[in-house]
Specification:
This protein is α/β, with parallel strands linked by helices. A hairpin with a 2-residue loop joins strand 18 and strand 19. The structure holds adenosine-5'-diphosphate (ADP) and magnesium ion (2 copies). The site of one magnesium ion has 2 residues, from loops.
Length: about 850
């Protein structure tokens, strides 16, 4: 019932059933529906107060204690919990029910005065911060001042007297900040805490996190009110976080962190550096053994790797939370393979546990293995992958750098929920405090960003914007590199190297290939890219953009000369010079992709893209004139031509097949190069390459008919009609979708050019949309992500389905593919599977992602 109870509430209830009521503190859950009603009304919805009172009474009955009691008070936590976990983004208040009286009661009942006052000061601190916005720094300063006065380093060393004084200090802060006395009535405390948790759903950091993680705003959060258990009762108590398997590598040994004599917030916030979970074996062997068993049991129950939170109170273990572990791709892949080996899951189920969006990280770079570098600090390997960039010390600076296209590493003592926007913008995260369960580590892994946490040797001065590690002094902007797979930090120029597919990943990909029905090709223009893609499992080239070949430095002058030529004769002369170069390019591709289809798109962009910009040229011309240069005349000619070619809307202008109609000699040269390369490749390998010639931007069937004639003519001339090639078109204009049956009559295949199709169907300029209105559109929930990233299913997707349908009506054996950016986007891949396409084509690095996404689409369809 996670939609209603939130993930945390549903799992706490489920755990109580599985592990028994002795293992999980009792409580009740206020539903997400109540939160939604609260948000709509801006007030407690009708009946909520009564229901809370009722549930509280039941809880008090169960616990045999009463909230605010001056003898042995019940204390509760008030915990947020959305449908999907949003670690640290929403608020939680612990130790609620403490007041000037119940602190005495707690001290007496537990015979532990220090513990009672520690709990009270924690409550004043957390309630003030979370429910009433008392700034965290003010609280930290107050704690620091007390510690200084007491002459101690750690919170745990503060005595009863200090804690009493600190509680007073914190109450003072509360009064200064709110103008009110700290609330003593537990019912009032509870109501304020419940409201605060509801309100945290609308907080800036939660909104930002949802935007990045694509979680709908309408869901709301549940609120869990739960009896407290205490990890801060001395050395036989602790709080911790445990994963059923290593959350970074996926190895089968559980992993985690804990802190003795602490409450959970201390572990998660990264303020104190926790100990490794396995050290518990010596400190609290019984609880440790029980925890290990429980982790296995939960894994079996949920059929997935678990991420849990626990507390040991005077030797007794309590489980406070479990959820399917968010994990970086390497751990996800490792788990999938091990789970099948251990017979925990079948192959399909194992494949479904992998989030294909995270797989990107596996293809992330790492430090070149033979690189020599000086390690200036070591920390916890908190999120895998390597990154290099200039140092920034604040999330805002990271965001600015991201917008300016600079690579940066976000360096902080520890991070907080407000820093999440900076994570997104930074290449990597480095902290001097905290461990694998710290906020920094958790969020970095969720986003697939490399992270080194708890690099204790770093002395970070946020005011001066400097960081020191031993003798190395660095300032903002200085370049550092981190290796989040090994926990290393260096200031040296280490080359980053691309990742290779691990044995386990290969295994997962092979399973994916067995179930998927959608083909996966690649978009590649060079033999290197094609080889890479083939290694990653591409089954052909779905799009070779020939214009890239003309942009290389040895080609560009020839291309420019061709464009400048005055007569067709001169133009043909220039084209003759380009032909052998093009032929070489194609030979290289046919060789690397032998045995697989290679789809070559004829020249697509408007010609002006090959000339210098008019502005630039005008400036140079002026300069040349002033100097009396000999080039003036030639430059003037070029400028004139640039002006001649200029169009108001070049993306809707003379490009694609329109060029082919206007200047058939250009396409003719390309076709000749393709055919000759085909013949040469056949001679070398004894096998004819599978050539597919693709005509871009077709709107009218007549255009394709004319181009097909051109192809046939060249083949006839070059081979006497001997070479077998397929001719097809990119479908990237709405008209082409509507008349797909007519176009199909002249085509062997369609390949949906979903970038242009999105641009033309929506009338959004692809080059401007990101910097223009799109962000506002996402904020206003008109769209939840860029239609250029994930296909707009109802609109553009409908055009694809329509064209596929009528195209196949007209020609049943028509091959259908897609070659826009969407071909590597998992959600879009699922759509293309459902739309019945034959293949997707994407950039080489996305090929493995598309293979997994296609497999998941097939599994989902089969299970529906
Ligand atoms: P988050 O969603 O940020 O993890 P939680 O609601 O899980 O917030 O609370 C954070 C931590 O507070 C938990 O990990 C746990 O250690 C502590 N906590 C929450 N409820 C209780 C409880 N009933 N008893 C003891 N500790 C608790
Ligand atoms: Mg939690
Ligand atoms: Mg296009």
């Amino acid at each position: 019932m996670r939609d209603l109870l939130g993930g945390k509430g549903a799992n706490v209830a489920e755990m109580t059933r599985v592990l028994g009521a002795d293992r999980v503190p009792g409580g009740f859950t206020i539903t997400t529906e109540a939160c939604v009603a609260y948000m709509e009304a801006g007030a407690y919805p009708e009946g909520l107060q009564e229901q809370v009172d009722e549930a509280l009474e039941r809880l008090e009955g169960q616990a045999g204690k009463r909230l605010g009691d001056s003898d042995d008070p019940l204390l509760v936590s008030v915990r947020s919990g959305a449908r999907e976990s949003m670690p640290g983004m929403l608020d939680t208040v612990l130790n609620l029910g403490m007041n000037d009286e119940s602190v005495q009661g707690l001290a007496k009942a537990t015979d532990n005065e220090r513990f009672a006052w520690d709990s009270y000061r924690r409550f004043v601190q957390m309630f003030g911060n979370v429910c009433r916005g008392i700034p965290g720094e003010e609280i930290e300063d107050a704690i620091k001042a007390r510690k200084k006065q007491a002459g101690v380093e750690e919170d745990t060393e503060l005595g009863v007297h200090d804690l009493k004084a600190l509680t007073d200090d914190l109450k003072g802060l509360f009064k200064d900040g709110t103008g009110e006395e700290f609330p003593q009535d537990p019912r009032e405390q509870l109501e304020q805490a419940i409201r605060a948790v509801f309100d945290s759903w609308q907080g800036d950091r939660a909104v930002e996190y949802r935007r990045i993680s694509r979680i709908p705003d309408e869901w709301g959060t549940a609120v869990n009110v739960q009896q407290m258990v205490f990890g801060n009762k001395g050395d036989t108590s602790c709080s911790g976080v445990a994963f059923s398997r290593d959350e970074v590598t996926g190895e089968p040994t559980p992993s985690g962190d804990y802190l003795a004599n602490a409450q959970g917030e201390d572990v998660v916030s990264g303020v104190r550096t926790p100990r490794d979970l396995h050290a518990m074996k010596d400190d609290m062997p019984d609880a440790y053994g029980e925890l290990m068993d429980i982790l296995r049991e939960l894994e079996r129950h949920y059929s997935d790797m678990q991420d849990t939170e626990f507390t040991v109170e005077e030797g007794s273990l309590y489980m406070l939370q479990t959820r399917d572990a968010k994990r970086p791709a390497q751990a996800a892949v490792r788990f999938a393979v091990d789970a099948v080996d251990e017979a925990l899951l079948g192959r399909d189920a194992a494949l479904m546990t992998i989030d294909p969006y995270t797989l990107d990280a596996l293809l992330h770079p790492h430090f070149a293995p033979d690189a020599e570098f000086h390690v200036i600090a070591e920390g916890v390997a908190a999120s895998p992958g390597a990154a290099r960039g200039g140092i920034v010390f604040t999330a805002e600076d990271a965001v600015t750098a991201g917008e300016e296209g600079r690579d940066v590493i976000l360096v902080r003592p520890f991070t907080e929920a407000d820093d999440v926007g900076g994570f997104h913008a930074a290449k990597g995260i480095l902290t001097s405090e905290g461990g694998k369960a710290s906020h920094a580590a958790l969020v970095a892994r969720g986003m697939g960003k490399p992270c080194v946490a708890g690099a204790g040797a770093l002395e970070i001065d946020l005011k001066a914007k400097t960081v020191r590690a031993g003798d190395t002094q660095l300032s903002e902007g200085d370049v550092i590199a981190i290796d989040g797979s090994r926990g290393l930090v260096t200031a040296d120029e280490v080359p980053l190297q691309d990742a290779e597919v691990s044995e386990e990943f290969e295994q997962v990909l092979l399973w994916a290939d067995e179930v998927r029905t959608l083909g996966v090709r690649t978009n590649a223009d060079t033999p290197e890219d094609s080889r890479k893609a083939r290694d990653f499992g591409a089954e052909g080239i779905g799009l070779c953009r020939t214009e890239h070949m003309f942009m290389q430095s040895d080609r560009q002058p020839k291309m420019r000369a061709m464009i400048m030529a005055e007569s067709e004769k001169d133009r043909r002369k220039c084209l003759d010079a380009l032909l052998p170069l093009q032929q070489e390019d194609f030979e290289g591709l046919f060789e690397t992709m032998s045995g697989m289809p290679v789809t070559i798109r004829l020249l697509d962009p408007p010609l002006h893209e090959f000339l210098p910009s008019g502005e630039e040229l005008a400036g140079e011309l002026e300069h040349a004139r002033a100097e009396g240069s000999d080039d003036v005349e030639k430059m003037q000619e070029t400028l004139d031509r640039v002006h001649e070619l200029a169009e108001t809307n070049p993306m809707l202008g003379t490009r694609g097949v329109r060029l082919g109609i206007l200047h058939p000699e250009v396409y003719e040269m390309q076709l000749r190069a393709i055919v000759r390369a085909g013949l040469a490749a056949t001679k070398i390998s004894g096998e004819a390459p599978q050539i597919e010639i693709m005509i871009p931007l077709v709107a009218y069937e007549q255009e394709l008919d004319l181009m097909r004639g051109l192809v046939d003519g060249v083949i006839e001339e070059e081979t006497g009609g001997e070479l077998d090639v397929h001719v097809g078109t990119m479908i990237e204009l709405p008209r082409a979708c509507f008349v797909a049956d007519r176009i199909a009559a002249h085509a062997d295949f369609f390949s949906f050019g979903t970038n242009d199709l999105t641009q033309t169907a929506l009338g959004f300029s692809r080059d401007d949309v990101e910097s223009g209105f799109l962000n506002r559109y996402m904020e206003r929930k008109i769209v939840d992500r860029s239609p250029f990233e994930t296909i707009d299913k109802p609109g553009v997707g409908w055009l694809v389905r329509l064209a596929a349908w009528v195209g196949r009506e007209a020609k049943p054996d028509l091959t259908l593919g897609i070659c826009g950016e969407h071909g590597g986007d998992p959600d879009s891949v699922a759509f293309f599977h459902m739309a019945g396409l034959d293949y997707v084509s994407c950039s080489p690095y996305r090929v493995p992602i598309a293979r997994v996404a296609a497999a998941q689409a097939a599994i989902t369809e089969a299970s529906d």
